[in-house]
Design goal:
Number of domains: 2
Helix content: 25-40%
Radius of gyration: 15 Å
Largest sheet: 5 strands, antiparallel
Number of helices: 3
CATH topology of the largest domain: Ribosomal Protein S8, Chain: A, domain 1
Length: 132
């Protein structure tokens, strides 16, 4: 199956799995999706992730994180830059998500990182998504 926006597909799968209260979700893997999963784990939005291969297909298995009262660590995840409308920001224009309560994930010349890390390093780039 050929997808026009694989990152949006990944975010939709995560959103749907959280709404259905699943413990894990399988996503077709790519390097960009692995980097997004790495950032989500570092920031505490998912408990873990694992890349594997099943039946010749590379799979990214994301283990979702829930709190004590079964509330999800991710309340919403939203795609910002889409194939039809790319959103690029300079180092001084990086938006804050919910006044610092959430994160945004950017692709920069030095790799995929959070908006906070990009601001600290003085880098701009393409805003992929926002998570809160």
């Amino acid at each position: 199956m050929n997808l026009t926006d694989p990152v949006a597909d990944m975010l939709a799968r995560i959103r749907n799995a959280i709404n259905a209260r699943h413990q894990k979700v399988d996503i077709p893997a790519s390097r960009l999706k692995l980097e997004i999963a790495r950032i989500l784990k570092e920031e505490g939005y998912i408990s873990n992730y694992k890349a594997s291969e099943e039946e010749g297909q590379k799979i990214l298995r994301v283990y979702l994180k829930y709190g004590n009262n079964n509330e999800a660590a991710i309340s919403n995840v939203e795609r910002v830059s889409r194939p039809g409308c790319r959103v690029y920001v300079g180092r001084t224009e990086i938006p804050r998500v919910l006044g610092g309560m959430g994160i945004n994930i950017l692709t920069t010349p030095k790799g995929v990182m959070t908006g906070r890390q990009a601001r600290k390093q003085g880098l701009g780039g393409e805003v992929l998504c926002q998570v809160w």
